[in-house]
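Thread amino acids onto this structure.
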């Protein structure tokens, strides 16, 4: 009885562990990805400032932290404090003058080159999979394709380190896409601890979907946006259970990041803004124009970037990834330093562009002419004429816009971790701020015009340029990635601007429509196509009337299908079949004459089973018969011991008949993430359809279709 009760207690514990394992995995993913994101944020802040100078009181402080701790900092000169010295001050003692400028310039470029060289070298030597954004590959993995080692421990470690280096080098890239990859690596790592997930690909994919949500949650401090991003953009199959778990993982990740508090302002994001003015119906016109700009930029960027990446693949350029990264980093640093808006990190630039000009702002963008009799409340400063600082800032912003547009095309897709969210948002935010200032000045100088008369009285605060920057950022990001719902949610979680949902929605939808007019694929789908990954897009419709028999292999002119029989194939034949082909698996039939289908055996399992039997099982030789039935076949008395492999046989492979419409087959492949499907007629095996065959057929039909 005692033994029985012990067993039952153990069984109860085991069943509880099994039930809770999913939530435990989510908790661990959230904790690790939140911690890594916090560390990355802190390291990027410090290393970005290291290019310009160093903190004497504690060298591990960034510029901002250094001046926080100083007692000599005044509010007007909050960026200047004796503890923080530029490199020129440190070496020559002069902070102003031509010599100091040249020295700072040189060191800025030197640091940028060093960081980018370290990043690309680490990726090349230790983890080639750590390059790029990672989202196209994760979409492909979640659709049922396996890329071995893509989510491994080395990739996780190197991606985290090189992401810090790449962002700090000042290249035009963000850390958001790679953080999704990092979170998915965390998910894969914790899956291997639980047999429930490590043995089951389907369950593992559900965990990775949730991990992607945690990645976006820490990248933007937007937990709900992360869940919606995973649902809309990354995941292939998203049941309700995964939705809850994604929500939990995103929550834990955001909570962990908040506990680390990398920005020191108790916010999860760098650009948190609070606007106090409402928006007016007439402003929808510039918002929609920004949406059109975002769509055009998205379509242009995808075309140009894919053309450049294709060129990289097909010419000598692809052989020298290190040189390419160093060249782009050098050009970026040389062109970025003279312009104060491109010299700083892109996140800080976006933060300044989103900012509303309060009474306490010291930014050049807030250099307005104040009327002498104006009382200065902290809030709701009326519209004012622009001062000289605003006009010079506009010129610099226009140059920064051109620079960002061009350099991002060459940066995305190099052999270093590179995200696309931040550069796209920067392009949109610059364009939006320029439009916002233009509208604001028009409203100030022409407040008697009919469009301004209803809502813009003299002395009122009507137009918020920062809001235009926010809408522009959303439009450009939508144009490149084709997100809509998750984009709007991420934007208002990111900025805390809940009352601006309508302008954001208008811009996001417009940019998607405009960009879709030039091409249906977003940047991630385009990169999937460019790399030739077998990915069936859920959004593509297949309306042709072909049948499974038209697509299946082997065709008439091809050799017959490579099959195994249930009880008459020798070990030597099996080894020859494995060696002579590179198929993913082999159908098992009763005999070559009847060709009745029994099941399907995976190549990996077969190789392992034969190898293990050769080493460990007595009497298994080259002439031994392999059998997949329950009972051994009747063999002559002097024949060697047969090898039973029934345990690795899949007795329920997916089959369709030769008359199944391809529309149904495509749906089956999509919904179940299949890699292959067998074609039969009344139990007889006729052929096989793989995912690549389906993709090839769809591409052929698209090209032949007269309607498109």
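Threaded sequence (708 positions):
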């Amino acid at each position: 009885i005692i033994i029985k009760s012990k067993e039952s207690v153990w069984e109860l514990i085991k069943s509880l562990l099994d039930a809770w394992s999913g939530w435990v995995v989510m908790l661990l993913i959230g904790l690790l990805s939140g911690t890594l994101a916090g560390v990355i944020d802190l390291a990027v802040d410090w290393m970005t400032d290291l290019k310009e100078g160093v903190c004497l009181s504690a060298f591990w402080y960034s510029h901002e932290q250094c001046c926080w701790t100083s007692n000599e900092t005044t509010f007007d000169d909050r960026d200047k404090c004796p503890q923080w010295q530029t490199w020129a001050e440190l070496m020559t003692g002069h902070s102003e003058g031509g010599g100091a400028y040249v020295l700072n310039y040189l060191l800025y470029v030197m640091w940028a080159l060093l960081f980018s060289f370290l990043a690309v070298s680490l990726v090349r030597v230790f983890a080639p999979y750590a390059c790029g954004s990672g989202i196209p590959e994760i979409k492909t993995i979640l659709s049922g394709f396996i890329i071995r080692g893509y989510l491994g421990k080395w990739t996780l470690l190197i991606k985290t380190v090189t992401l810090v280096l790449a962002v700090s080098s000042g290249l035009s890239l963000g850390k958001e896409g790679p953080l999704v990859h990092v979170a998915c690596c965390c998910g894969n790592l914790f899956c291997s601890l639980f047999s429930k997930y490590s043995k089951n690909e389907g369950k593992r994919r559900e965990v990775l979907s949730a991990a992607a949500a945690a990645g976006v949650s820490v990248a933007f401090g937007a937990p709900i946006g992360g869940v919606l991003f995973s649902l809309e953009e990354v995941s292939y199959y998203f049941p309700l259970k995964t939705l809850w778990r994604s929500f939990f993982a995103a929550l834990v990740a955001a909570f962990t990041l908040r506990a680390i508090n990398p920005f020191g302002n108790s916010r999860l994001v760098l650009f948190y803004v609070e606007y106090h003015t409402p928006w007016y119906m007439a402003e929808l016109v510039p918002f929609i124009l920004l949406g059109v700009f975002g769509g055009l930029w998205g379509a242009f960027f995808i075309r140009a970037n894919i053309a450049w990446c294709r060129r990289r693949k097909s010419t000598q350029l692809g052989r020298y990834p290190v040189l390419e990264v160093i060249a782009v980093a050098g050009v970026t640093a040389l062109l970025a330093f003279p312009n104060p808006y491109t010299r700083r990190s892109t996140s800080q630039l976006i933060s300044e562009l989103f900012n509303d000009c309060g009474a306490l702002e010291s930014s050049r963008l807030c250099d307005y002419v104040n009327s002498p009799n104006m009382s200065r409340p902290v809030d709701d400063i009326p519209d004012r004429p622009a001062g000289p600082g605003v006009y010079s800032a506009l010129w610099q912003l226009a140059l920064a816009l051109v620079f960002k547009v061009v350099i991002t095309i060459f940066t995305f897709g190099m052999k270093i971790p590179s995200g696309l969210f931040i550069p796209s948002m920067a392009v949109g935010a610059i364009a939006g701020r320029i439009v916002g200032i233009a509208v604001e000045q028009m409203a100030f100088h022409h407040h008697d015009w009919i469009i301004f008369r209803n809502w813009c009285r003299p002395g009122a605060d009507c137009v918020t340029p920062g809001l235009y920057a926010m809408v522009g950022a959303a439009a450009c990001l939508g144009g490149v990635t084709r997100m809509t719902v998750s984009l709007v949610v991420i934007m208002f979680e990111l900025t805390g601007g809940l009352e601006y949902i309508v302008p954001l929605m208008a811009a996001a939808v417009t940019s998607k429509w405009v960009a879709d007019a030039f091409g249906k694929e977003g940047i991630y789908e385009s990169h999937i196509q460019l790399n030739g990954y077998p990915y069936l897009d859920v959004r593509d419709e297949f309306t042709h009337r072909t049948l499974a028999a038209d697509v299946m292999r082997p065709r008439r002119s091809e050799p017959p299908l490579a099959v195994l029989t249930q009880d008459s194939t020798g070990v030597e034949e099996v080894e020859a079949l494995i060696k002579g082909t590179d198929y993913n698996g082999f159908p098992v039939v009763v005999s070559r004459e009847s060709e009745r289908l029994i099941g399907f055996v995976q190549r990996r399992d077969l190789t392992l089973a034969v190898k293990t039997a050769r080493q460990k099982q007595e009497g298994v030789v080259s002439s031994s018969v392999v059998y997949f039935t329950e009972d051994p076949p009747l063999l002559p008395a002097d024949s060697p011991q047969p090898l039973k492999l029934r345990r690795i046989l899949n007795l329920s492979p997916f089959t369709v008949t030769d008359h199944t419409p391809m529309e149904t087959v495509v749906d089956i492949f999509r919904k179940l993430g299949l890699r292959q499907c067998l074609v039969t007629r009344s139990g007889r095996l006729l052929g096989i359809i793989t995912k690549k065959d389906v993709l090839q057929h769809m591409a052929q039909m698209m090209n032949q279709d007269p309607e498109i």
